[in-house]
Design goal:
- The model has no long low-confidence stretch (mean pLDDT 87).
- The longest helix has 32 residues.
- By secondary structure, this protein is an alpha/beta fold.
- The chain starts with 18 loop residues before the first helix and ends in a 10-residue tail after the last helix.
- The strands form 4 sheets. The protein has a 7-stranded parallel sheet, sandwiched between helices. Strands 15-20-19-16-18-17 form a 6-stranded parallel sheet, sandwiched between helices.
- The protein is built from 22 helices and 20 strands.
- Among the domains are: 100 residues, Nucleic acid-binding proteins (OB fold (Dihydrolipoamide Acetyltransferase, E2P)), CATH 2.40.50; 190 residues, Rossmann fold (3-Layer(aba) Sandwich); 156 residues, Rossmann fold.
- Helix 4 packs antiparallel against helix 6, helix 7 crosses helix 21 and helix 7 packs across helix 22.
- It binds adenosine-5'-diphosphate and magnesium ion.
- The site of magnesium ion (MG) has 5 residues, from helix 10.
- The site of magnesium ion has 5 residues, from helix 10.
Length: 691
């Protein structure tokens, strides 16, 4: 290896890596030397103390080192399927390994060779059997066991041999690229007793023991979490230094009249508290940046409305962006109902407006006339210009990416920003994805709500369910019936919306059964929603277009078909559509889950109505990418850190990072840290300034 290799040098520059191998490494996501250093093993084999075959437990995933006594290929009764069987021995016992359709295997794994095997172990007719195990031939020149007893096993790809990759990594570690510097401030590493970076990387690949490995992992995880928190702290610092916001008054005439004459209920203590936080943050000239979390039905909309009203009272404009047109229209309707008496203009800006209507609205918005604008993504299009935008709300923010939330704020000149989510987010994720925002929580529901009972049924035609629906509709209740797809397909044997709509219409001839999905034109969708809200339609069959935010107080029954197909947070959102008035809601999760995970999700829903508990569970079952649309911006694409396992570490990293940035906002004393933060996160988080 030459002296000039850097972290960003392509692996092609390494000895023994030609174009073909470089292409294969790319399939493992390895392009640069740094990628290679951070391609950590999937698992390790302890060859020093390989378990004797005789000790393996049927049903477990195990590894063992054994000699191949014989190996043969046999055709099976099925065409195109052949079976390779090897007889193994390690002196303690005999065992058998079988593979299906592995071309040429018997020419590689020859009788007399010694290999390590890893895979599922079963007991077949008194014989231990590995089924489709991974294996690796151990040659005599690999040296006696003990020389390298813990062996890394990397993610596999065709044409890359474990042994070769192991050697490549080991050589690269032998002379680390010069620019691989440790970004952690020394005083933090010392205080925490963290392993130095290079040692940690070596130990991840070739651990000398369990303890050393654990320390290495902890150090690398801490570094990742710490760098992210430093980036978030810098962003937050940026907001605080920004003194060009427009102070809002919270004691204007519109606000006063709204609270005393229009608002039909009194606020919950939580809502009051949050309003206090918003008023405090937005009445100065530092722009507010706040995340409001509140479970479905906790009453976030009215809080947002009052915030927007403060902007209008102060002579500015306010805008609220919703993820779907249905929801935007519902907000528009509700705001218009509440505000028309006060003479406040509420515009609706969505994709389906006619051109002339749209032009007219755009003109009014550009004029700077105080008003409220409700819309979808249409709000952040280039042609939309606000004359005096001072308050921005992003509703159901998990449906938007970080950059989209920024895009709406970018329409104004340092507006105050309120981001709302009804998908409760586990704290670890909140701190990672929204760590630059201040947090507010509405943690109670308006009085009088009765919690929704959730049940699981196997069969959608269950007579008990039919009877229940008949009874509910007879007494004026309304029913949502959600299906996962629109049209029938061969791949997914799921009940499609259209078919279910026909079945229910036939089954309940006395009721009007509506249908709603993404392929229905917006005006028709709107009319259907209105008919459902007014009670003209009493059973609404739909896709998940009803998932977020819809508020029909008379809706009491939610049926989710093939419920195991949905994520937990999504099921929680769907369930949140019912029981919003004073009558109890019922939720039926229908279907036969085919996997343990599917069963676990349904079980979690039936046993908990607490959105935060459910979100934590979702994080464990599905990982961060699936919840809150986090995947889009890759902030939580950690190489080592794990938001479930490393919660404590995250809290520590956050504390250290924020206190460091507080004491040295430009990180002038920590150039290596500053460079690394910008290198990894500058673009993702749109950090201002350069390294
Ligand atoms: P979410 O937080 O899910 O967006 P909404 O804002 O849609 O919830 O509120 C749910 C329902 O509760 C709405 O019909 C709303 O008018 C009503 N609501 C909100 N706050 C209160 C309150 N303090 N007392 C009674 N009803 C309320
Ligand atoms: Mg809402």
């Amino acid at each position: 290896m030459t002296e000039t290799l850097t972290r960003d040098s392509p692996v092609r520059f390494l000895k023994g890596v030609g174009p073909a191998r470089a292409a294969r490494l790319l399939r493992l996501g390895v392009q640069t030397i740094e990628d290679l250093l951070y391609l950590f093993p999937r698992r390790y084999e302890n060859r020093g103390v390989a378990a004797p075959l005789a000790s393996l437990q049927a049903g477990s995933f195990s590894s063992a080192v054994a000699n191949v006594l014989a190996i043969e290929r046999k055709p099976t009764r099925k065409r195109n399927l052949s079976l390779v069987t090897a007889l193994l021995s390690d002196g303690s016992s005999l065992a058998q390994a079988v593979w299906f359709n592995r071309k040429g295997l018997e020419k590689v794994l020859l009788p007399g060779s010694k290999a390590s095997f890893f895979g599922k172990v079963d007991r077949r007719g008194g014989f231990l059997q590995f089924t489709n195990p991974e294996f690796e031939i151990i040659a005599e020149e690999d040296g006696p066991p003990g020389q390298m007893t813990i062996v890394p096993v990397y993610p596999g790809t065709e044409g890359i041999y474990q042994k070769w990759l192991r050697r490549l990594v080991s050589e690269t570690i032998g002379s680390f690229p010069e620019d691989l510097t440790d970004p952690l401030p020394a005083f933090i590493s010392e205080a925490k007793g963290l392993t130095p970076l290079k040692t940690a990387i070596s130990q991840m690949h070739f651990p000398t023991g369990r303890e050393e490995w654990a320390r290495a992992r902890k150090r690398l995880a801490f570094e990742e979490l710490f760098l992210l928190q430093v980036a978030l702290a810098i962003r937050k610092q940026g907001y605080m230094e920004d003194t060009e916001g427009k102070p809002l008054t919270w004691k204007g005439p519109l606000m006063e009249r709204f609270l005393s004459e229009v608002l039909p209920f009194s606020m919950t203590a939580s809502q009051e508290r949050v309003l206090g936080e918003l008023a405090r943050d937005s009445s100065g000239n530092v722009p507010m940046n706040r995340l409001l979390q509140g479970d479905v039905g906790s009453g976030k909309t009215v809080v947002a409305l009052i915030f927007l009203l403060a902007a209008v009272d102060s002579g500015f404009q306010g805008a609220i962006m919703a993820p779907t047109e249905i929801l935007a229209r519902q907000h528009h309707r509700r705001l218009t109902d509440w505000l028309s008496a006060l003479g406040v203009t509420v515009h609706l800006l969505v994709g389906s407006l006619s051109i002339s209507r749209r032009e007219k609205i755009l003109e009014e918005i550009a004029s700077g006339e105080p008003c409220i604008v409700v819309g979808t993504h249409a709000l952040i299009q280039k042609t939309v210009r606000f004359g005096s935008l001072a308050a921005v709300v992003v509703d159901e923010q998990h449906r938007f990416g970080v950059l989209q939330r920024g895009a709406l704020a970018g329409k104004g000149d340092h507006p105050h920003v309120l981001v709302m989510t009804a998908t409760p987010i586990p704290r670890t994720l909140t701190l990672s994805v929204f760590g630059d925002l201040a947090f507010s929580v509405i943690d109670e529901l308006p009085p009088g709500r009765i919690s929704t009972v959730t049940r699981h049924l196997n069969d959608p035609d269950d007579p008990r369910l039919m009877k229940f629906i008949a009874r509910e509709t007879a007494r004026g209740g309304r029913v949502y019936w959600v299906c996962p797809v629109i049209e029938e397909s061969e791949k997914l044997p799921l009940m499609p919306v259209i078919r279910r709509h026909e079945i229910l219409a036939e089954r309940f001839p006395g009721e009007k059964v509506g249908i709603l999905h993404g392929q229905i034109p917006p005006e028709e969708r709107e009319a259907t929603m209105e008919a459902f809200a007014s009670g003209d339609i009493s059973i609404l069959v739909s896709t998940t277009v009803v998932e977020v935010g819809l508020d029909v107080r008379e809706a009491t029954v939610m049926v989710v078909e093939d419920a195991h197909r949905f994520g937990l947070s999504q099921l929680h959102q769907l369930r949140g559509r019912v029981g919003r008035g004073s009558s109890a809601g019922s939720c039926f999760l229908v279907g036969r889950p085919g996997t343990d995970e599917g069963r676990a999700r349904i079980q979690a829903m039936c046993s908990s109505s607490d959105g935060f508990r459910i979100a934590e569970k979702d994080l464990i079952l599905r990982g961060p990418g699936e919840i809150c649309g986090v995947r889009q911006h890759g902030i939580t694409d950690f190489r080592v850190a794990d938001l479930v396992k490393d919660r404590r570490l995250l809290e520590e990293a956050r504390e250290d990072a924020f206190s460091l940035v507080r004491s040295d906002p430009s990180l002038s004393g920590f150039p290596d840290l500053r460079r690394e933060v910008f290198r990894r996160l500058g673009a993702k988080l749109r950090l201002a300034g350069t390294a």
